Structure formats: structure tokens, C-alpha cells
Amino acid sequence: MKKKWLVILLVLSMVTFLWGCGKSSSSGGKSSVLEGGASESATQLEYWTFVELHGQHFQKMLEKWNAAHPDKQIKLKVTVMPYDDMHNKLSIALQTGQGAPDIADIEVGKFPDFLKGTPQLEPLNDVIEPYKDTIVQSRLNMYSKDGNYYGAPTHVGAALAFYNTEILEQAGVDYTKIDTWDDYKKAGQQVYEKTGKYMGTADTSALWQASMMLAEQGKDFTDDAGNPVVNSPELIKGLTILQDLQKSNVLATIAGGQPDTEEAYGEFNKGNYASMMMPFWIMSRFVNYMPDLKGKIAIAPIPVIEKGQPRSYGGGGTGTVVTKTAKNVQLAKEFVAYAKLSLDANIEIWNTLGFDPVNMEVWSMKDVTHNPDNKFIQYFKNNPFDVLNEIKDGIQQIKSTPASPTINNVLGTTALNEIFEDGKDVTEALNEAQKQIEQQLQ
Amino acid sequence: MSRNLPKKIVLIAFFAVVCAIVLVPFYAIALGSFKPGKELVRNGLNLSFDLSVMSFDNFSFLFTGDHSYFTWFFNSVLLTVVQVALTLFVSSFVAYGFAAYEFKGKNFLFICVLLIMMVPFEILLLPLYKLTYDLGLMNSYSAIILPGLANAATVFFFRQYLRSIPNEIITAGRVDGASEYGIYFRLILPVMKPAFAAMGILNGMNSWNNLLWPFMVLSDENKYTLPIGLKTLLTPYGNNYDLLIVGSFFSILPIFALFVAFQKYFIDGMTAGSVKG
Amino acid sequence: MVKRFLYSQKVAPYVFVLPFILVFLLFWVYPLGSSVGMSFQKITLGQSASWVGFANYAKLMGDGIFLKAVMNSVVYMVLTIVILVPFPMLFAVLINSKWMWAREFFKSAFFLPALTSVVVAGTIFRLMFGEMDTSLINSFLGLFGIEPIKFLKGQTTGFIALLALATWRWTGVNMLYFLSGLKNIPEDYYEAASIDGASSFQKFTRITVPMLKPTTIYVITISIYAGLAMFIESMMLWNGNNSPKNIGLTIVGYLYRQGIEKSDMGYAASVGIVLLVVAMAINLAQLAFTGMFKKED
After folding, report:
1. Which of A318, A416, A320, A402 has the alpha carbon at shortest distance from A101?
2. Tell me: the pLDDT tens digits for B70-107?
3. Across the interface, do A262 and B220 touch by the CB < 8 Å criterion?
4. pTM of the predicted model, to two decimals?
5. Of A251-255, A285-289, B238-242, C244-248, where does mean pLDDT reach its minimum?
6. Is the Cβ–Cβ distance between C119 and B231 less than 8 Å?
7. Which of B39-48, B194-203, C86-95 is most confident?
8. I need a surface site. Which of A122, A429, C78, C157 has the fewest CB within 10 A?
């Protein structure tokens, strides 16, 4: 009989356990709640991001917010997840209306998927209004639908060229003389001959280079109506130039598929590639992940196909959103606008994250942009804002449309790989990609 | 016997080589756990024994650093133990019903068991997610445990096992005046030990390694299991690989200890079990 | 009264199978039914679903990426069976032979990989199959003067990595299945064969293989299931669901991509239903072919 009771007891305790963990949420382990000097009565908001550094920025802004708004204090619970996981979890949570945080970061490439149907996000129009005139309008448009702004932008992401001057000097190349892709090709061939190293990368897993080539020719992946046209003569021309550079040993594919990966940081850090054309925010990757290149990297405008073409475009981006299920929608919205769009926030975005802020006034604030204590300033040979201000008026915009995630996926997984890994004909690859994109969007 | 010596040597040599290949990844990760995470992403995992880049930093970070590794570890152990115990109990309970009785609808129900074995669980992910939400079980371990309670493969295995137990035990129990449940608890459960061991290990492995479904329903970092936690360390910037590699290495140890302890039962149980056809 | 009722021999069996019925109805029948329903719907974020008939299925048939995913899953399934049935069987027979030393050690060593989580195993293999010349596989190939290979960027080489991972993890498990099957073969059969002068090879093909048939069927059945439903392995090996040229995309991966990454639950449900039909058809065909049903009572 004893045994029977033991079994029953065991079963009962397990059932209790099951009930228990269904109801309560036990805590323990690492807590990631930012207090930011808030009092006990502060509202706790939950924030998801895929970049740890964004949390640090929010911490700084939280302290300022709590000090300035004693009646509306906030505690922020920050959860950092890998890129795919965070977006997927957010997507499920919003689809089912359960488990979403109050505030979240959504990357521009994923954003259109969250704007499908009736967006489960709060329009930020009223809180953006006070800052609207100070920030780059096109960055707001990326996160909008039907006149509603759903995301607060982080940066402009102006594309620049980054040259490893140590390698260039060995090869006897002067990067300031590189204006066109023809110049770049000659320089690259010289680098390859003299040092055996490649001038740059041919990217297979991201669209930075493709976007750059389109922007120079004033084109986009979509037409004015938002329909995808990836087999446009302009994109064919742009990628053909890159493929030709690859065939001339100027460019080569890189481990990781593009410069913004851990594998590629390693390659660059070792000095295997002499340049990259990337959006402004890549500077923070240089500083954090390529320490050996400190003092060797010079910044310049990117080369163009023909002189007089626009010399940059805004790449990448993260929109911070407030979800419909947020506990205190208005408070969350006000805080997001404050933490991302106020002048203070814009200055901090440069100081903490090393991004080019969306408030362009900051670009010409000498004490901020030429602060000798700033680690980003210290790292590079020349001042990034000097270059930025030079190309300021030529920064093109690549639109974000409902078709964009599909375009990114098809080009970034298939077409670019075929072109640069398998040497497939550019026109052929892009025609197939166009067909596949249309089929996917049906 | 000496005639067989060459055969013996060839056989042992063959297995030694295969075994070495099988163990290479473990050796590589053991070495890797002493190297900085960035090093691994940039150079790949390899067998270079380069003392200049090796250190105990990862281990000291594992035991003293600011992270949730041991919370995840504890969660995984807890979840695995509870899930396996409940699954074994419920599944054997059900299997006994199928093995010991003739009743209306039995064949139909048993066909359902077989059908479940052929339905890939993955296709139910989305509706199950909705259901879990409707039941208010999001972010709870119940959501992970309940769908697997009457595990079809386990029920099937137990039922096959029980068929090999002589009917006299049950008849004798009834003669002694035991109730139907008494027979199960006092006479049947004890003789199922080998089957429990075998299914315990298989279910334990599945539970310990389960990723997709728990990842979908758990959103609180403090409730993550080890595989989910380790997966969240795979950020694109390689800065968490230190913990990932050493944590991965460390996660293999407990389940291996369990296996070594119960290996005998495992083989015995499998032998006694289902696959007689 | 209630107790008498519950304890009667007529009612007891239903009490015993009740947990199964509940779990079956709640967690299988209901979700499966709603999956079928969803596959005929267009479900948009924040709006009510609308019925679209067979539109999702029609789209699937012309979807090149889906067909690629089906192709990958089926090829993976076939190749895992081709590898993971004969080799584990052979290993089991060899390890069971009377000339073998240190059996327990080898069994444990072979089983060890199965105990590592896919997250861990996938990461190890991704780093081992890295394209750098310093990664394990490439540095090994380098010993023979072979140039570094970009394993995870090509269809064939990517599958080699994927199959290496599967083989590494499952050889030991399948070997144990076959070892338990071997224990059921009476020793007299071999003795009788020896008296008749049969060679070792003849004994293997005439006695061992036929007698292992039930085990083989079992292993094939679970391999079909596991092969067709494979997803996490691919996700870990490519560190995401977007492998170059979709070389690692599987059916479940596509379901995940459509349903979760792209919020198109209706389309994803139809992917799931196709997977269900394919898995059922292949498994039933296999069982019918191997004569499993005749033995079942």
C-alpha cells in the first residue's frame, strides 16, 4: 500500500508543478531591467532589440527622461535576441495578440512584413510632430503606411568608402584620386599585382552594393508604383561592373558573404581586403571588431560610374515601434520619440552608437562631431563628418515597399550568389530573379 | 584462436578509426572552449593547439560571468525530468489499457496512435500556437509538456512490451482481489522497468534537445531551456561565442553521465521491446 | 457508486486510454483540423480571414522555391536512409562479433553524438565546415593539396555537410536499434548454418539481414519521418533559414518562413498539409511494400 501512496503523491506534486508553472512566472537568473534612476512607482515597459548597443543607448536616454519627467518615470526591461529570432517572435506575438513587448526594434528589411494588413503597431504621428522638421523626411517614410508613421528611425546610414591606407601605400595607390569605378579598377589591379590582396569584396548575402549601384544611377529596386523591377538596365549595368571587377581580381567574395559579418571582420582585420563601401554605421563595427586596423582606415566618398552622379545612399535602418498591446501606449510613444528623435537623442546616437543621426543639424555641430575624446573619431584617419557634409546633398534613398523583403530574399540568397559565386550571366540571373519575385508576390 | 588474431586486429583497428572520426568534433569543441569566440568564427573550428590564443577565460566566464547559463541549465534539467516522468507514466497507463483489454473502439483508437506517429509535429506549430494562447498557457512549461503527454511512439513501444507479459499475472491479480488499477500499479509497473529505462532515455534525449516548440512558446529569458538559451547567443557579431562554445561543451556532460549509468537498461529495454514486429 | 462504476472491468479500459483520447483530440485533431481550415484561407495581420478555396494550393504548385524545398527534403530523406540503415547495421553486426574487444566503450562512443543538442552539433559542424582554409575540414583537405572548399555555399558540398551532421548524430542510435534486433536472433540459427558450412558472409545475408527485417522497417519508418520533417539541422548549419540559393531549405523551413517570418499563415498551413500527405503516402507505401500490415493484428 505504501508504494501506491508514493505514486499518488508523486503524481499530485507533478500536477501541482504543472499548474504552478502555468500561472506564476518565477524569476531568477539575470535581470535586465534598466532602472534609469526611476522611483518605485515607475511604469515598467518591455523593450526587444536585436542589437545589444541599442539597449545602452536607451539606458542613457532613460536616465535623462526620468530626470526630466518625474511624474512619468519609466523602468525598461530590455531583451536582446538574435536578429531572426527577435523578428520571428515579434511576428508571432503580433499575429496572435499575445506576448508582444511594449516597444521593439524592427529592422528596415523586415519592416514591410509588419505593415501588412492592419498593422498591429501604434501610429507615432502625434509624438513625431514636434521633431518632424528637424529630421530627414525620407527616413521617416521608410516606416510609414497610408500616412501613418509606425517607426522612429535611428540613423541616415549614408554609404561611404573605407580604405585601408596601409595596403594602398604598399601598392602605391592614392585613394583620394579614386572618383569613378574605372579609377577603382586601375587602383585595384595595382593592389592585386603589388600585394596579392583584393581591393574589395563582391557581396553575395546583402544588397549594399546593389543598392549603391542603383542609387548612383538614380534608380531603385521598385518602380514608382512599388512594383519590383530587378532586371532593370541600371541594375544589370551596376552588377556587370562589379562582376567585371571580380574577374579582374579587384573584388573577391568573402567568408560570411558581405563585410558586415563576424567572418568578414576577421578577414578585414587581417588585412586581406583593402576597401569596403558601406553605410556609415559600419564605423562602429570597425571600432569594436577590427581593432588592428586602428589608425589605418581613411574615409572617402564612394566611386561613381560617371562623374557627377550621386555619391551616396542611405542604407540599413531600424525603426523603433510601439505595439498595439503596449500597457501604456501614450507613455511608450512619448518615450520612444524622446529617446530616438530629440536633439539630445541624436547627439547620443552618434556618441554611443557611432551612427549618423537623422537630425542633420548635428552633422555640423563641431564640438560633437570633432570631439577628440570620441572613440570613433580617434579610430579613423580623417573625420567622417567632413566627408558626410561633402556628399550631404547627394544621399539617395532606396524605398522600402511591401515587395522589399521578397526582393532582399531572392537577390540576397539566390541571384547574387549565382552571379559572384558561380559566375552566372548577370542579365540571365536577374531575369530569373525577377520572375521568382513576381511569383512569390502573387 | 591465434588463427583469428589478424581478424581481431583488423576489426579493432577499423573501429578505432571510425571512433576517432566520431570523437574529432568533441575534441575540437573541447579545444575550442579554451579559445576566444571571435577566433572560432574567424578561423573556423580546428584542431590547432595554439597556446598563445588559449586560456581559461571562457571557463571563468562560465562560472563567474553575468549570464543566465545556469538558469537555463536548471530549467532544462527540471523540464526534462518532469516531462519524462509524466510522459512515461501517462503513456504506460494508456498502453496498459490497449494491451490488457478488449473494448469497443480499441482498434480505431490504436490506429489513431499509429497515425500520430506519422504526422510531423511541425505542421501543427501554428494552430498549436494559437491553441496554447487560447488556453492561457503561453510562456509556461505546461505548453511544452501537455501535447506530448500521451506520446504515440512511447505508447506503441509500451504496448508491444506489455504484450510479452503473460496474462496470468493479471488473472492472478484479479483472483487476489486487486482492482483493475491496483493490478496496473502493483503488478504491471514493476515489471516495466527495462521498458521505462529505454523510453526514458529516448524521451529524455528528445526533451533535453527540444528546440523549435519550446522556443515558440517561451518568451521569458528566465524560462529558457539550454538549447534556446544557447541559440540566443548566436548573434551575428560573434561576441557571445565564448559562452556558446564552453556552454555547449558543458551541456554534453550531464546527459552523457546519465547514459553511461543507464546504458545496460537501455540495451536490455530495447531488446525486450517493440521491434519484434 | 462512482467508484464501483470506475472500477468495473468494462469501464476501466476507457479510463486507461482516456488521457490519450484527450491529448489526441485537443492537441492533434483540433490543430490538424484548423490547419486544414487555414490552408483554404487568406489570413492577414489584424484582419479577419477570408476563404479562398484552393488558391493557396494552386500557388504552391507554381512556387519554385517550395518545389526546391520539397526536393531538398526528399533527397535528404533518401540519402539519410541510404547511409543510416546499412552502415549502422554493419557496425552492429561487427561490434556483436565474438572477436570484438571493448564493446561497451565503442557503443558509448558511437552513441555520444546523439546526446548533443542540435544547436550544439549544428554550430560545431558549421564552424568545422567553414570556408576558411583554417577550418577543420579544409585544413584536413589541405594536407592532400586540395584548395579550400566553400562547403556551405554549394548544393552538393552543402548536402555533404548536412549529411555528415546527420550521420554523426544518428549512426550510434540506429546501431543500438540493430544491436537490440540482433539479440532476438536465436544462436542456434548460426550454429546450424555453421554445421552446413556457411561462410560468415552467407550467414549475414541469409540469417542476419532477414531476421533484422522488423528492426529495419522500424528504422526506415522513423528515418522517413525525421528526414521529411528536418529543419533545425539546416537552420543551425546555415545559422538561419536563408541558405545561399536555398540549398538547405526544407519543407518545414518553408512552412516556418511563410507562416512566421512572412506572417502568411494560410499559405504556410497549405505547405504543412502537403508535407502531411507526402509523409503519410511514403510511409504507408513503405509499410505496405515491406508487408508490415500483414503482421499487425
Report:
1. A320
2. 899 999 989 999 999 999 999 999 999 998 888 988 98
3. no
4. 0.89
5. B238-242
6. yes
7. C86-95
8. C78
Instruction: Give the model's pLDDT for residue B90.
Output: 94
Q: Is 0.90 exceeded by the ipTM?
A: no
Cβ pair B47, B28 in contact under 8 A: yes
Distance CA A4, CA B182 (A): 8
Average pLDDT over every residue of A348-374? 93
CB A208 within 8 A of CB A159: yes
The C-alpha cell that represents A212 in the structure block: 549603391
The third-level CATH classification (topology) of the domain covering A39-156+317-369 is D-Maltodextrin-Binding Protein; domain 2 (3.40.190)
Asked, colleague to colleague, whether A39-156+317-369 and A159-315+382-441 share their fold, the answer is yes
Q: Which amino acid is at C276?
A: L
With H, G, I as helix, E, B as strand and everything else as coil, classify residue A323: strand
Q: Which string of b and e fits A201-217 if b means at least 16 CB within 10 Å?
A: bbbbbbbbbbbbbbbbb
- Report percent pLDDT > 70 for chain C: 97
Q: Which stretch of DSSP H or E encloses residue A99?
A: none
Q: Which residues pair with A75 in a beta bridge?
A: A44
Task: Tell me the pLDDT tens digit for each residue of A106-137.
Answer: 999 999 999 988 899 999 999 999 999 999 99
Q: Which of residues 131-160 of C touch B (CB under 8 A)?
A: 132, 134-136, 138-139
More confident residue, A18 or A337: A337
Kindly state the cell numbers that stand for B136: 492561457
Distance from CA of A98 to the nearest CA of C (A): 13
Start-end ranges of CATH 1.10.3720.10 in chain C? 53-295
Q: From the CA of C112, how many Å to the nearest CA of chain B?
A: 7
Domain ranges of chain A: 39-156+317-369, 159-315+382-441
Q: Give the residue carrying C-alpha cell 574605372.
A: A182
CATH superfamily of B68-276: MetI-like (1.10.3720.10)
Please judge whether B121 and C183 are an interchain contact, meaning their C-beta atoms are less than 8 angstroms apart.
Answer: no
The runs of H, that is alpha helices, within chain B are 5-32, 37-43, 57-64, 69-100, 106-118, 125-134, 142-145, 152-163, 168-175, 180-182, 189-191, 193-209, 212-217, 226-232, 241-272
Neighbouring residues of B214: CB distance < 8 A, sequence distance ≥ 6: B79, B144, B225, B227, B228
- pLDDT tens digits for range A275-284: 999 999 999 9
Confirm or reject contact between B235 and chain A (CB < 8 A). yes
β-pair partners for A163: A275, A298
Across residues A363-384, what is the average pLDDT?
A: 94
Beta carbons of B267 and C179 less than 8 angstroms apart: yes
Burial of residue A159 (number of CB atoms within 10 Å: 0-12, 13-18, 19+): buried
Cell numbers for C235, please give them. Answer: 537552420
d(C-alpha B160, C-alpha B155), whole Å: 9
SS (H, E, C) A238-306: HHHHHHHHHHCCCEECCCCCCCCCHHHHHHHHCCCECEEEEECCHHHHHHHHCHHHCCCEEEECCCECC
The CATH code belonging to domain A159-315+382-441 is 3.40.190.10
Its CATH architecture, for the domain C53-295, is Orthogonal Bundle (1.10)
Residues 231-290 of chain C whose Cβ lies under 8 A from any Cβ of chain B: 231-232, 236, 239, 252, 255-256, 259-260, 265, 268-269, 272-273, 275-276, 279-280, 283-284
Between B67 and C122, the higher pLDDT residue: C122
- DSSP letter, residue B80: H
pLDDT at B267: 67
- Comparison of pLDDT for B261 and A79, the residue scoring more: A79
Distance CA A401, CA A229 (A): 12
Task: Spell out the residues 6+ positions from residue C162 whose beta carbon is closer than 8 angstroms to its own.
Answer: C76, C233, C234, C237, C248
**pLDDT tens-digit readout, A235-273:** 999 999 999 999 999 999 998 899 998 889 989 999 999
